Amino acid sequence: MFRIGIAEDDPSFQKTISEYIERYKKETNIDIQASFFQDGNELVFKYEPIYDVLLLDIEMPKMNGMDAAREIRKRDQRVLIIFITNMAQYAINGYEVGALDFVLKPIKYFSFSMKLEKALKSVKGQESVNILLEYKDGMKKVSSDEIVYVEIRDHWLHIFTVDEEYQLLSTLKEFAAKLADYHFICCSSSFCINMKYVTDFQKDIITLNDKTELKVSRSKKKEVKQALLDYYKGGLR
To answer: InterPro entries, alphabetically (predicted)?
Structure first.
């Protein structure tokens, strides 16, 4: 599922965008969840890094789309930004916040759908995938690239990222399925690792770059070794 945040103060344009997203969902059978904000100030105040794409009207009261984008970039470097504007030159400074594109008002469905398709393809084409973690204390969007390994303990799934640890109720099998295409491999029935962070594999011990050591099950040893050799193209011994 893709999550889109829209900051637009004009109710008529909100209605149009909502209808266009629904139409696009029906035509493509893509699951999209849209959240609307009345202006940039509300978006920034309520912002959580859980969105894949943001549609921001450049001209809004209290806080315009460009200022909102600057604030959001301080918290979220991955979200794709598309500006909505009356005049193309208003979006010329979009490079400052890494904007993907802009949509001109009045918004036409064909143009809007092309911009949306471009954004969603860009999200899909990333080497990593954004995963929404609903953990004990809240929720957060985390890139698979930032996950070092995951481990199941006492029915709780522990997600170890570069910076933090999260605990959520899930099965290892279910979570691993989300990561299968992003350089992860399960080394036992208890844990899966991101091969990017492996620094050593001796006998049946995997060592990660934070010095964590994990034991590979006997049944998985050959598969893990081959996966690592393929990943590093023979560079790991």
So the answer is: CheY-like_superfamily (IPR011006), LytR-like (IPR046947), LytTR_DNA-bd_dom (IPR007492), Sig_transdc_resp-reg_receiver (IPR001789)
Query: Taking the CA of residue 168 as centre, how many other CA atoms within 13 Å lie in the half-sphere pointing to its CB?
Result: 18
- The CATH number given to 136-231 is 2.40.50.1020
Structure tokens at 29: 């059978």
pTM: 0.57
pLDDT digits (tens), the chain, 237 positions: 788 999 999 999 999 999 999 999 999 998 899 999 999 999 999 998 889 899 999 888 888 888 999 999 988 888 899 998 887 666 566 767 888 888 888 899 999 999 999 888 887 666 677 888 887 778 888 888 889 999 999 889 999 998 889 998 889 998 888 887 788 999 999 999 998 889 889 889 999 988 899 999 999 999 998 888 877 654 443
Domain 2-125 class in CATH? alpha beta
User: What ranges do the domains of the chain cover?
Assistant: 2-125, 136-231
